[in-house]
Structures are given as C-alpha cells and as structure tokens.
Design goal:
alpha/beta; TIM Barrel; 8-stranded parallel sheet; 3-stranded antiparallel sheet; 18% strand
Length: 369
C-alpha cells in the first residue's frame, strides 16, 4: 500500500501522465478493473462514484435502505482495486443519513481500509457540510488529504475562493489536495488556453496533483442500427493543452475522463420497461466506434437476446479502426462472441468497453504526448 505524500510542488514530468478516470461503481465497470494487469493498475488512480440507490417503481420507494445499498461496496471496490489508492465520490447519493451510526463517507473509507484499500474523499463546491466534516475527520485520522473537483467557473484563476472554502472546511493545505480541473463537455480553443493558464499559475502554488479533463460521450447517442464514429473531444483538448506546455518550466497535468459514460445522464424509467439494443462502445484513441445491432430486450417477443449481438460485433471487427492503436484482452471476447460464443448482456458489454477504454487511454498517454 502506498500513501500519497504531502510534498512540495510537482516536478516537471519525466513519465507518462497518471490517468484518473471517473468510474461509476457498478458491476460492469468494477469487473473491468479486476481484469486489468498490475502494470495498468499502477498507472491509474480511479475516482469511484457511488451509484445512486435504485428506485422501486411499483411501491414508489427506494429499493434498499442506505445501509443495505452500501453494505457490500467496500468488498467490491477492494476486489476491483486491491491494496491501492482510489478516490470516493458520493455526489450521486441523496441525503442518505447515517450508516451504522456514521456518515456514509466515513463508514465506506473506514471499512475499505480494513481490507487494505485506501480511499480519499472527492469534494466539490456542492458537497454538504456533513460530507466535509466526515472528510475532515478522516484526514485527521489518516493524513490522506482530499481530491477537489472544480468546474470552469470555480477554477482558481477565476474564483480563488471555491477551493479555499473547501480546504478550510476539511483542514487541509495545498500539499494535501489533488485538484481536478473539469472543463466538462466544453469544446473550444479557449478551454485549451484556460488549462494552460491554470497550470502556469499553479506552478508555484503547491497542489499535490493537478488533473484536467472532461467528457464527450453524448447524452443522446446516435439512433438506429449501424456503426458510428464519435469524437473523444476531452482527450483531444487535454492533448493540445499538454503538448502546448511541454518544454516549459510549467507543471504538466494528469488526465481524467468519464470512460464510456456521460455523467449528465440519469435513468428515470422503470427498468422493466426498457428496450435494449445490442451495443458496444469501442475506444480507438481519439475516437469511439459505436456499434448498435438489433433488439436484445423488448416487449412482445421482439427482443432477440444473444442473437442480436454477433452481427453488431462482426460489423465492429470489419471496421478500419478495429484493433487500433493497440489490441487488448477485449478483442478476445469480441471475436469469440462474434463467432457465436457467449454474447453476454449489457453488464458484459460495459465491462469490455470500459476495459478497452482504459487500456487504449493509457497507450495514448504513453505514446502520443
């Protein structure tokens, strides 16, 4: 286990950037982390987002109590990440109340540490006073510090008070903070300039780490069957920012994204009523190949189950971006399923989409900057 050190400002980087993807802690995504080789795990520090509680549409109540919802999460996170460091984001939870007499943040971090997993709170200007109080107690006990995510209006160069207020509430200094500068879905040359300006200003501030990024997976993916190419704008903007800073005395940022998800999407429909098509979100460096096949699940016997999956994967295999810029373990599953092997389900598809996305991103960060 490695604790983050409270150190002086970061030196100019001589190694590839660290990847800190925001990851909803669901079965498919956590299975992807379990599949990653140790060398890949060493180059990432995920932000695990605790999923919202499921809603029982029949009875119009939450399907589980807060305690039941979180009960197995420390074990699941440890199985995915092992005895390493990760961040914990509780922003999707409602006002959960106490879990075993503790704030959910305090309980989750404490229980994970018993297993060997080191979790660090991820705070935002929207974090509740109770969350920040729990984060303060945890830092006093373990000295691990916090992560702070700021969207553009609250970046230090625009609103210096946003981070300062959070740091004061938790009782930490700059050297205890991993700062996330989130440009969200903004695609603009001004974003690149803003990132570079923030890094210039931060060179003497003493943040422990600075990570920049955003998201570009669309809220509404293309409809209909077919193969679609979607741009990974957040990676392109990060790359432009990073390359523009290389060779200077300025600190170089690490990178985050939201994998193959859009953080603004919320599902407000009874899962029993969902129509599901066979799909795969396939990372190919600065693009995604998105394939959608026939109906996997639909009412009235219209869903074809596993039979809908192989044709979509066959179309993917035939695309010129398939297997680029690097092959991963995901291709083994894709090719087997395309040939008539087990086709899995939506969790399986998300597992292999997430796995490939991480490996391709690590390849890009190591070879394209």
């Amino acid at each position: 286990m490695t604790e983050p050190s409270a150190a002086a400002p970061m030196p100019i980087r001589a190694t590839p950037p660290t990847y800190r993807p925001f990851t909803i802690a669901r079965a498919g995504e956590l299975a992807a982390y379990k599949d990653l080789p140790a060398a890949s795990q060493a180059r990432i520090t995920p932000v695990f987002i605790v999923a919202a509680r499921d809603w029982d549409y029949d009875n119009e109540v939450f399907a589980k109590t807060p305690t039941a919802h979180l009960a197995d999460l420390p074990k699941k996170l440890h199985a995915a990440r092992g005895d390493r460091l990760a961040y914990l984001d509780l922003s999707l939870l409602d006002d959960e109340g106490l879990v075993h007499g503790q704030h959910p943040l305090h309980w989750l971090v404490t229980e994970a540490q018993k297993l060997g997993l080191l979790l660090m709170p991820l705070a935002t200007p929207q974090s509740s006073a109770a969350f920040l109080s729990a984060a303060k107690s945890l830092h006093a006990a373990n000295g691990r510090g916090i992560g702070i995510r700021l969207t553009t209006n609250d970046w230090p160069g625009i609103n210096a008070g946003a981070a300062t207020i959070l740091m004061s509430a938790v009782g930490v200094g700059h050297s205890d903070v991993d700062l996330f500068l989130d440009f969200e879905a903004k695609v603009d040359a001004l974003v690149v300039a803003a990132v570079q300006n923030e890094m210039h200003a931060a060179s003497s501030t003493g943040w422990r780490h600075i990570t920049t990024g955003g998201h570009s997976w669309p809220k509404d993916p293309p409809t209909g069957q077919g193969t679609f190419i979607l741009p990974r704008a957040e990676l392109d903007q990060y790359t432009a920012s990073y390359v523009g800073l290389k060779g200077t005395s300025t600190l170089l940022p690490d990178f985050f994204d939201h994998l193959v998800a859009n953080p603004e999407v919320t599902l407000d429909i009874d899962p029993k009523l969902l129509t599901i098509s066979a799909t795969l979100r396939y990372a190919a460096e600065s693009q995604w190949v998105f394939v959608r096949g026939g109906l996997y699940k639909a009412s009235g016997g219209k869903g074809k189950g596993g039979a809908s999956v192989a044709p979509a994967l066959q179309a993917l295999i035939g695309h010129t971006l398939y297997g680029t810029p690097v092959r991963t373990k995901a291709e083994t599953w894709i090719e087997a399923a395309a040939a008539g092997g087990p086709s899995g389900n939506p969790m399986t598809w998300r597992r292999w989409a997430t796995y490939r996305h991480i490996e391709v991103t690590l390849h890009s960060l190591a070879n394209s900057l």
